[in-house]
Write a structure and sequence with these properties.
four-stranded antiparallel beta sheet, Rossmann fold, binds S-adenosylmethionine, 309 residues, seven-stranded mixed beta sheet, 7 helices, alpha+beta, SAM-dependent_MTases_sf, single chain, globular, Methyltransf_16
Length: 309
């Protein structure tokens, strides 16, 4: 983990080295670079390089409108910008914006397009309304923002207000800073983002897998894997989906569609490494449940989607 207390923190990403000037003696926490932001960026870089890794939907940047909350010196947002997140607003409280602006200037030449900066205090409805105009965002990014219990309701409300009500996703770099804030945050999140996915450690960049930092994806609705029905189609799902089904036993799920939807019988099989674990015909709408994890098939005439909870 390349985390340092030195005045300048380096972040190699997308073939460039971004540098962030930090001031650890400042009263503002946002003038330091915090580790989970680096973990988040290096995870994104890894996912973008290897499309076989899951969560590609979150990191498919072209056309994505994004906003970052509590950008601080900007490592998460500027790192993602370097990776191609072109339509991005970086935000923080007024006292931190000068440090953010300085770091944006420092790194501008490495960015395909400069992100915009905006003042945002999470409990300020006017700031939120102005940033969410003309419309809300596909992606809300935040790193290391959960540490003051009193701020947590405002933070979650801001995520909720800024993320598109239907398909908005939060990409969160996370570290437990305060047990009270941690508890309050995870108690509040499901009302706005019922689907919480923790990135498995093996998908993080090993050089930046700082043991206390995690990356989460928070969603409005279950992730869907759409499939066009074709006889004989077989499709494998990312390991993370199978892992969510059964932590250790299931390594591979594949879906075999043996006949098309236009025929009277469409059979869906989910195979695990120990043979079929689920079978569904047109008449069956049930999902499978394993502990609290669940897979459900949603079928229309031309397409079947698999939702993983
Ligand atoms: C621990 S720092 C993390 C900074 C940066 N994301 C990083 O990872 O390096 C938390 C950030 O959240 C911002 N923040 C804290 N409370 C806030 C609030 N109520 N409204 C807006 N920003 C806030 C701080 O100013 C700071 O920049």
């Amino acid at each position: 983990m390349r985390f340092t207390a030195s005045p300048v923190v380096e972040l190699p990403v997308g073939g460039a080295v971004l540098t962030f000037e930090q001031d650890n003696d400042s009263f503002e926490v946002g003038t330091s670079v915090w580790p989970s932001s680096l973990v988040l960026v290096k995870f994104a870089e890894r996912c973008l390089r290897d499309p076989a890794l899951p969560f590609a939907d979150v990191l498919r940047f072209p056309g994505t409108r994004a906003v970052e909350l509590g950008s601080g010196c900007g490592p998460a947002g500027l790192g993602l910008s370097r990776l191609g997140l072109a339509d991005l607003v970086l935000t923080d409280i007024a006292a931190v914006l000068p440090a953010l602006r300085r770091n944006l200037r420092r790194n501008r030449r490495h960015l395909p397009r400069a992100p915009r900066l905006a003042q945002l205090h999470w409990n300020c409805p006017a700031h939120l309304a102005s940033i969410a105009s003309p419309r809300r965002f596909d992606l809300v990014v935040a790193a290391d923002v959960v540490y003051v219990p009193e701020s947590v309701p405002h933070l979650v409300a801001a995520m909720d207000a800024l993320a598109d009500a239907d398909r908005g996703v939060v990409l969160l770099g996370y570290q437990v800073r305060s047990p009270e804030a941690h508890q309050a945050f995870w108690d509040a999140v499901p009302a706005a983002f019922p689907v919480i996915e923790k990135i498995p450690r093996e998908h993080l960049d090993p050089d930046y897998a700082y043991e206390e930092s995690d990356v989460f994806v928070l969603r409005r609705r279950p992730r869907q894997f759409p499939l066009h029905l074709q006889p004989g189609l077989s499709r494998s799902f990312p390991n993370s989906a199978s892992r969510r089904l059964n932590q250790s036993k299931v390594r591979l799920i594949s879906l075999a569609i043996l006949s098309s939807a236009s025929k009277s019988l469409a059979l869906l099989f989910v195979f695990a490494n120990r043979g079929p674990i689920f079978r569904s015909s047109r008449r069956s709408k049930a999902g499978i449940q394993n502990g609290k994890e669940k897979v459900r098939f949603v079928r229309s005439r031309a397409q079947v989607s698999v939702e993983v909870f």
